[in-house]
Amino acid sequence: MRLKGKVAIVTGAGQGIGAATALKFAREGAIVAVCDLNHDAVFGVVSACRDAGVAADGFSIDVSDRDAVDDMVAKVLAKHHRIDVLVNNAGITRDARLQKMTLKQFDDVIDVNLRGVFHVAQAVVDTMIEQRAGVILNASSVVGIYGNYGQTNYAAAKFGVIGFTKTWSRELGPKGIRVNAIAPGFIDTPILSTIPEDVMAKMREQVPLRRLGTPEEIANIYAFLASDEASYINGAVIEASGGMTL
Questions:
Q1: What was the pLDDT predicted at 243?
Q2: Is residue 76 part of a domain?
Q3: Tally of domains within the chain
Q4: Model confidence over 31-64: pLDDT tens digits?
């Protein structure tokens, strides 16, 4: 159990990669704070984590709401007295071409995918500094490295997350805190549920492995990066795309 006894916060943990990560951490022995906007989904994941034999708590929060984030972190600290790992996974899409994108579509994605990452990291960092130990893991995307048609807002936010990761790894590394990011490619999550099958087939053809990734495959990387096995990995952006960008 690579994460036994560690206290982890996972945002966007109601479904997809976040839910798989929360459950993976629980199976590795971590105490998990499951955070998501969807109340019912949160407590479904909490129940699954508890079934794995660990303590888990649920928080229905919007990461763009700083007061809600601060309240969640305070409750985790009051109960467990430390925070060892943060997985900044919460994210949304509001796709449109530049000419058609509304200010609301732009702002909504930046508020959750970029500002939300800042909120939660800043809320936990003082505790990690006091501990002289901690791990912050940020969800970027291959879109944040290479861009993508119709995703001005999403690409900007995910590129910004890489900037956060590089900057924080420099600032916090001397204080015993590692900061890394994962840049997934096409992952089979509910976010793809509205995409037509012919488009999905084209997506699979772009990947040398000829398939989409699974949430569990990304969760496995998060678990490794959160563990002491990754103790010399800091400031990295790990692409997990099945080779689609080769």
A1: 95
A2: yes
A3: 1
A4: 999 999 999 999 999 999 999 999 999 999 999 9
Q: Is residue 246 part of a domain?
A: no
Supply the pLDDT for residue 3: 98
Q: Which domain, by its residues, includes 119?
A: 7-236
Question: Would 14 be classed as within a structural domain?
Answer: yes
- The residues annotated as belonging to the active site are 154
Provide the pLDDT for residue 161: 98
What pLDDT, on the 0 to 100 scale, is given for residue 156?
98
Residue 215 lies in a domain: yes
Instruction: Round to whole Å and give the CA distance between 228 and 85.
Output: 12
User: Per-residue pLDDT tens for 174-228?
Assistant: 999 999 999 999 999 887 776 788 888 988 999 999 999 999 999 999 999 999 9
**Residue 49 belongs to domain with CATH number:** 3.40.50.720
CA 189 – CA 94 distance, rounded (Å): 16
Angle formed by the axes of helices 103-110 and 152-172, nearest 10°:
30
